[in-house]
Amino acid sequence: MNSSFTIWVLLLIGLQYFNLADTDYVNSILRNNIQIDDLKQYRFMLNHMECADRMAFCYFPQGCDQNLLGILGDFLLSLDKIDFVALCAHNKDRINFSLRSEAAEWAADAIARQILQGIGFGGGHAEMAGGVSYSAFIL
Q: Are residues 27 and 95 in the same domain?
């Protein structure tokens, strides 16, 4: 059997199961399930984040799970006077990015694609986006 054909069949099967899944429930589990140990990342973020002009930024040099980055970004975005959040973490051989926005002038997906162009990939939605770079030299 042709390997390209096999890949297409597997993709079609995966899409059928994806359409059957309760994606809202799956996303709520991924976005809202934190462990006691994750509170260390909250503490690190609160002690090391920079805030200016309605934006918040934090870099996690010790790494941070990409799903937790999104949860942390959502937390910061819930703060009064914060309309854009950029978080990034050095995870082994890559840098993970998580962007959140409540400002029409700062579309998270466009910013993710722009900052990662040529060094990685990113995308998402105007309100939330993420990405990865395998070029650790950028930070």
A: no
Pull the structure tokens for residue 45: 């973020």
- Amino acid of residue 54: R
In sequence order, what are the beta bridge partners of 122?
131
List per-block mean pLDDT (blocks of 10 residues) for the chain, which spans 139 residues.
64 67 67 83 97 96 93 94 96 94 94 91 93 72
Predicted local confidence at residue 91, as pLDDT? 93
Contact at 8 Å (CB) between 99 and 48?
no
Length of the chain: 139
> Can you tell me the distance from the alpha carbon of 76 to that of 46, in angstroms, rounded to the nearest whole number?
9
Q: Quote the tokens at residue 85.
A: 């959040």
Q: Is residue 81 left, alpha or beta, with left meaning phi > 0 and alpha meaning psi from -120 to 50?
A: left
Number of domain units in the chain:
2
Residue 46 CA to residue 137 CA, distance in Å, equals 25
Pairing of strands 84-91, 120-124: unpaired
This prediction has a pTM of 0.75
Instruction: State both tokens at 36.
Output: 């006691």
Range of the domain at 103: 36-138
Q: What was the pLDDT predicted at 22?
A: 73
